[in-house]
Amino acid sequence: MLEPTTSDDTAETPRSRGSGTQTVYTTLRQEILAMTLPPGSPLDEVRLSDRFGMSRTPIREALLRLASDGLVTTLPNRNTIVATIDFATLPTYFDALTLMYRVTTRTAAARKNPAIMATIRKHQNEFEAAVKAQDAYAMIEANREFHVAIAELGGNPYYTTFFARLLDEGRRILRLYYSTFDDRLPLQYVQEHEDMIAAIDSGDVERSDRLAIAHAEQIVRQIQEYIARDMNHAVSIGDL
Fold first, then answer.
1. Sequence-separated (6 or more) residues with CB below 8 Å from residue 45
2. Are 179 and 237 in contact (CB under 8 A)?
3. Predicted structure pTM score
4. Contact status, residue 53 vs residue 193, Cβ threshold 8 Å
5. What is the arithmetic mean of pLDDT over 161-167?
6. Nearest Cα to 9, choosing from 52, 59, 66?
7. Of the residues 120, 122, 140, 175, which has the fewest C-beta atoms closer than 10 A?
8. Could you tell me the CA-to-CA distances from 22 to 58, 68, 230 in Å, in that order?
9. Does domain 8-82 have CATH number 3.40.190.10?
């Protein structure tokens, strides 16, 4: 008697599928953030399945995770592409980002929590190491965790959730920011984080606010100058 056949999808154990999903997710996420996969690039499940040597189920699950990160988009025809960067919405994005830098840093300075302060310092050390290594991907990750930890110290989960979402949506914008320095980020920007930590640790709400404003403004200014200086390149990246 012939044994019943199983498809690739059903043959995978939950553990193997889970690890496969994580592999695909991590790899594609790094490539999207590094712009190796530019905005608008097609993400075909069959080709990705061949590339990673696994069934389409973990591929599909990884793409769903990337979609929840705002990094991929499913079109009406069900094709999936790397999400485009809408440069027209940047002014409103920057307004929201600046506001959340300010409110989370201010609220953090008004509270004390040694455990969370230790976490903030840990992420700052990771950020400094990434800057010295000129590792843009690690800089993006450490910067995100640093600011989310500051928001967590502030104690308002709504602020934390919204700020984390903004930082996640802006990962590729931050990648453009680092590219303006050819990934050789000046150590003065590491010092900006150190100054914020010192102000928060001392409970100086007003100084924390001023530092947050300055921190946001220099990021916004650098990206705006980049776009103004090389609009043709910016448009090609955004597929506008």
1. 56, 59, 60, 63, 80
2. no
3. 0.77
4. no
5. 93
6. 59
7. 122
8. 8, 14, 36
9. no
